[in-house]
Every structure is written in C-alpha cells, then in structure tokens.
Design brief:
The protein contains 3 helices and 34 strands. The protein is an all-beta fold. Among the domains are: 31-76 and 114-167 and 286-326, no CATH class; 487-664, no CATH class.
Length: 665
C-alpha cells in the first residue's frame, strides 16, 4: 500500500506499508499420517501432553549400524513461517542544486519455528538389549541372540533412546529500524556529490513467552530469558549504529560519454544464523535427552519396563524381558535439568552478552566509458571490510597436550558458541565490456580479480572441513587466511546472435513461407564461465581434530591421474601419551586451492508465428555443452583411503540437454 502526497512541486512525501508472509523449512514424507502410531510404536506422533500432534506425522527415527536394517523415519519437520510488517516514509525536497531526502524504514519481523530435536524419538539399535544377554563379542559387548538387528529388536531392547521436548512453535520477534537523511548536491553540471547519514536500531530476537535459554560459558549455568535479571534477548541493544554515506559522480569531458564515480558507506545487519543457532533451541525448551541401556533403561517400541541392571560387560542382569515393556516412554515436556549445573544435555547455542551488531564497510571507485553508440566499458575497484562478524566455535573443545576429556565443562558435549568477533576484507578489480543489442548481436564480458580474507567461517558456510570451526578459538589471528569462498579469478562471456537468415535478413529474404519457417529466424545464445577454485584445509581428524602437519611438497609434478595433491606431503600431528594432539598442525588454514570451473552453456531458439496472436517458440538448451568435469574439493581427510584424490563431481554438473516448446499469446 502506498500514498504519495504532493505538498508543493518541490516537496513530496511517500508513505508505504507492506506485509509479507513466507514459509521455509522441510516437511518429511508421510507428514499427515501417524505411521508409528499405526504400527504400534509409541511416543512418536504425540505432543508433550501425549495427544496426537498433526505436525509430527510419519515415522520415528530407527537405525543402528545401517548394514542389516536401513535407517527409517526422521527427527521430525522443521517449519519456519515468517511474517514481516514494513512501514516506510520518505520526504523529498528539491532546493536549488540540492535534492534532499529524509525518512525512516521500520520492520517488525516475526519468525516462528517448529523444530523439535528427535521430536518423534530415535530408537538406536546396537543389539545389546536382549532377553538373555547372549554370548560376548571380542570387545566385551554382547551379541544379539539372532545376529540380526531386526529380529533382536522385536524380542529385545534398544541400546539407546533419544527424545526431545515438543512444545509447539517458538515465536521470536525483533525490530529492524533505520532513520536517514541524505543530500544529492549537484555542484556543477559535471560533478555531483551524495552525502548521507543513517542510524540503525536493530534488536536481537526475543521469544513471545520467554521460551529462550542461554548457556553462560563462564559460569556453566543455563539462564532463562526474563528471569533472575536476565534480559529477554541476552544481548544488549546497540544504540550507536551510525552509518555515514558519501559518493560522487564526475563527467571529466562534459560530453556524457565518460564518468568517474565512487562511494563509501557503513551497513549494519542482523545475522541470526539459521534455525539451529536460536536460543529457543536450548534446554529446557529444546534439545534432547539420552536414555541408555547401559544406564538401566529398558526401552523398546511398545514402551519401557522398570529400570534394570547389567554387569561390567553390558550383560543384562535384571529387567531383561522385553515382553513387559509397556510403560510410558519419557515425556516430551521441558527437559528436567539443573540450571545451575546442567549435565548430559545438548547445548545448541551459547550467546555472549558482549556481542555487537555486525557491520560491513564498503567502498568503490569506478570509471565508465562509452566507446561507441552500442559498446560500453567499465573498470572498477571494489573493497569491503567486515567487523564484528558472527563467528561460531566449540567452547568445549579438547585442550591440546592434555589428558583426554580436558574441556571447559566435562559434563557437557559440544558447546556451539556465537561470538561477534570475526573480521573480513575483500578487494577486487572488476572489468567489463558490454554491447547492447544492435543488428542482431549482443555480447558482454566481465572479469574479476579478487581476494577475500577472513578469520572465521559463517553459519551458512558451504565448506565444512573441521566442522567449519577454528582449530583454536583462543587464537583467531592464526585463522586469518583466504576465505572459504575466495575465488581469485572469474571470467564470464555471454552473447546473443540472431542468425542472418530468413525474411528481412541479409540472406534468404526471398525464401518462401515453408523454407523460412524452418530455416529463418534462429537465435543462438552462449554463456562461457571460467573461474579458479576455492581454498580448503587438510584435516587430521584426531583428538581434537586439527589441521595436518606439512612434511613435503604437495605438488611434486608427477601425480597420478585424479590425484590432486601429494598425500605423502602431510602427516598426523604428534600426540601425547593419551593420544591427544600436542597442538594445531603447522599447515595453515585454506592454503591449498581446489579445482576450478570451466563451463559452456549454449542454446538456440526459433519462433513460429501462428496467425496474429500466437507465437510458438522451440528451444534447445545444452548445459555444460562440452561435458567438462566439474570436480568438488579433493578428499582432505588425512585418514581416508582416498586422501588427496578427486572423488566426485559437482551435483548436476554433467552435460544436460533439454528441448521445449513455449507458446506466447
């Protein structure tokens, strides 16, 4: 909805109001059918009160070694309905050589999500819950009496059962407001300055019912939003997000064919990090609890029996008859956890109260020149610098050169910590040459030479070596290197050419209707892309996982086919007597660069006119015309048998050909 009000010819106000509803997420198969309940598997398709839950259809997750009985079922859906309300008001005032604008843009963002962890339950099968214990394996664990997971499951217990709270939607809210003033000052006919200042007020998300919790990495406590002096968001709002903007445009010759331009600005933004990194995913409102056979729990599809005992080798001593397992399975209500000393629960995210609003500084300098009436060239330098970028690391990471399980909080597993301590830079030379469509021909070519550097990956980083986590979060300076997404060079050439055959063209203007219909009016299109690869780490998956040691030349020059780098050039990091790495490997982050891309896409179109109103278009499209292999990163895991080798190509990168008919009327 928009309203424009003309106060005077040089004073205009524009008001806009908008509403957007979007839905993201994943709905698993059979979401509208209670499969588990129909099969007699309890506690899967119900909510915390034990009532049927329409959002938890399908089957519970069931699986073990995946070699006798394949995994079936799933954790449940994740649903993210989002509502956004926007109000914007802009006042424009033209006064002499000044065009001034003042305004505000206010967004109210409502992001709900439903994503219970193991909300339908996870029945984990290892075969050590049997009616009589059975014989022992060499490692001391007992063998199922049948030797088959499925048979053993029907007459025994699961090795482990996991389930998490199902409390309905988490309903988060935040504000994103910006207020600005700017002046476009036309100093002369050839020079214009753009001056502006913006103030952003960006709040961190709160939950409608305060169903958020944060883990304090310093005290080891779980903190509840809005209680005991905790704020609702755990992170204070910053009121100092001032963002100056400056730009210019200069016509050096005054003929409108050349232009120098440039600008600088600061931009603030909210980085929420995806559904897994939300405070509402923490205990007691989310997470999951393990109920292990080794800890006395006797659980199967139909329920559980009274707790039992077992000997040191895991052999069942009491409560060994699965036929009596009809008791209710653990509740899906809030997790019962000691907030002052949480143990044996999963921490989804720990947010630091010192976090600040992430920002990016951007600057550029550009020269444009019209070479002919249809050809324009462009040369530009572009730079950015990210500050207070959201960084994730495991605060409970194993200490180097220490006894096993020397971590900050031994009673907990991974503590995924969110800290706005990241930094990045990007510098690029960008050049382009474009010819607009004229005489049946259009083409463009663009080339970028750039370098992106950072000290930590983001929440949605597409490269997950080492879990996308620093090998030493206490020394982020050592992580500063080429970004996981750094692509040094990229060339793209595209063109459209109408073949000069047929009526009205250079050749074939006298063809009859039938000949012209088949041979005239063809158009060809081409896109050529060439780019260098992105960097990657070489990982030693020890305790803890770290980067490997470099002991030789990765590129000796005589590598076997499909061997991308020399595997003998790397070695595992030395360990202490407990098998713990002495320190990070000596090979730096993102030192090697993976395979690049070389690709040609080609298509040809032909229009067939059918009377005055209808046009049928035939299209033949060829993706990766030359079927050039587009490899993913080589195997970078030091312990893998294919270490150093190219093992696969990019998804759907093989040549694809499609034909289509399109009717326009």
């Amino acid at each position: 909805m928009e309203e424009t009000h003309l106060f005077t010819p040089n004073l205009i106000n524009e008001f806009r109001f908008g509403y957007i509803h979007t839905e993201f997420g994943y709905t698993p198969p059979f979401d509208n059918i209670p499969l588990s309940a129909n099969l007699g598997i309890v506690n899967a398709n119900v909510d915390a009160s034990g009532q049927p839950d329409p959002q938890l259809g399908g089957g519970a997750l069931i699986g073990g070694y995946n070699n006798q009985l394949e995994y079936t079922g799933d954790y449940g859906p994740y649903l993210v309905p989002q509502n956004t309300w926007q109000e914007a008001d802009n006042l424009s005032w033209v006064k002499g050589k000044h065009t001034m604008k003042f305004g505000a843009n206010i967004l109210r963002r409502q992001v709900n999500f439903f994503r219970p962890l193991t909300g339908k339950g996870f029945f984990s099968l290892y075969g050590n819950g049997t009616t009589d214990g059975g014989p022992q394996k060499a490692d001391g664990s007992n063998v199922p009496i049948s030797g088959y997971e499925l048979t053993d499951l029907l007459i025994g217990f699961t090795n482990n059962y996991q389930v998490g709270p199902v409390l309905g939607d988490s309903e988060t809210r935040n504000w994103e407001a910006g207020f600005y003033g700017q002046d476009d000052w036309r100093i002369t006919r050839r020079l214009t300055l753009n001056l502006g200042l913006r103030w952003d007020l960006l709040t961190w998300p709160v939950e409608k019912f305060n169903h958020q919790a944060n883990f304090d990495i310093f005290t080891g406590q779980l903190q509840i939003a809005g209680q005991d002096g905790n704020s609702r968001s755990f992170v204070p709002v910053s009121y100092s997000n001032w963002a100056p903007r400056i730009g210019f445009a200069f016509d050096p010759m005054g003929d409108g064919k050349s232009k120098f331009s440039g600008g600088y600005g600061i931009f603030y933004f909210v980085d929420r990090g995806g559904i897994s990194n939300q405070l509402a995913q923490n205990p007691p409102y989310s997470g999951q609890v393990n109920y292990s056979f080794a800890n006395g729990y006797r659980i199967t599809f139909t329920g559980q029996t009274t707790p039992g005992t077992q000997n040191a080798n895991g052999i069942c001593l009491t409560s060994c008859n699965a036929a009596g397992a009809t008791g209710a399975l653990p509740s899906k209500g809030p997790i019962q956890v000691d907030l002052n000393n949480p143990a044996n629960v999963a921490i989804s995210i720990a947010t630091l109260p010192s976090n600040k609003t992430p920002s990016v500084q951007e600057w550029n300098f550009q020269y444009e020149r019209q070479i002919t009436n249809s050809i324009v060239m462009d040369l530009a330098y572009v730079g950015t610098k990210g500050t207070h970028l959201t960084t994730y690391y495991n605060y409970n990471r194993q200490y180097y050169n220490s006894p096993t399980n020397t971590v900050n909080w031994p009673q907990l597993g991974t503590i995924n910590t969110q800290a706005t301590v990241g930094n990045s830079t990007y510098n690029a030379l960008q050049a382009s040459l474009n010819r607009r469509f004229n005489n049946g021909l259009q083409f463009g070519a663009s080339y970028t030479w750039s370098h992106a550097i950072d000290d930590s990956p983001g929440a949605f980083d597409n490269y997950v070596a080492n879990g996308a986590s620093p090998v030493d979060y206490r020394d982020l300076a050592a992580e500063r290197a080429s970004s996981n997404l750094d692509t040094r060079q990229r060339l793209v050439v595209n063109g459209i050419y109408e073949l000069p055959f047929g009526k009205g063209e250079k050749w074939g203007s006298g063809w009859n209707g039938v000949t012209n219909a088949f041979l005239g009016g063809w158009q060809t299109n081409l896109i050529f892309t060439a780019q260098t690869g992105t960097p990657f780490d070489v990982i030693d998956p020890g305790n803890p996982a770290t980067r490997a040691d470099l002991v030789g030349n990765p590129y000796p020059g005589n590598l076997a086919p499909y061997t991308y780098f020399n595997p003998a050039a790397f070695a595992a990091v030395p360990t202490n007597g407990a098998g713990v790495a002495l320190g990070p490997g000596n090979f730096g982050r993102n030192t090697l660069v993976g395979p690049g891309i070389m690709n040609v896409d080609f298509s040809t179109f032909k229009d067939f006119k059918m009377g005055e109103r209808f046009v049928t278009q035939f299209r033949a499209e060829f993706y990766n015309l030359c079927n050039t292999p587009q490899f993913i990163q080589p195997d970078y895991n030091l312990n893998d048998g294919n270490f150093g080798k190219l093992t696969n190509t990019r998804l759907n990168s093989q040549r694809q050909i499609q034909f289509a008919l399109k009717i326009n009327f």
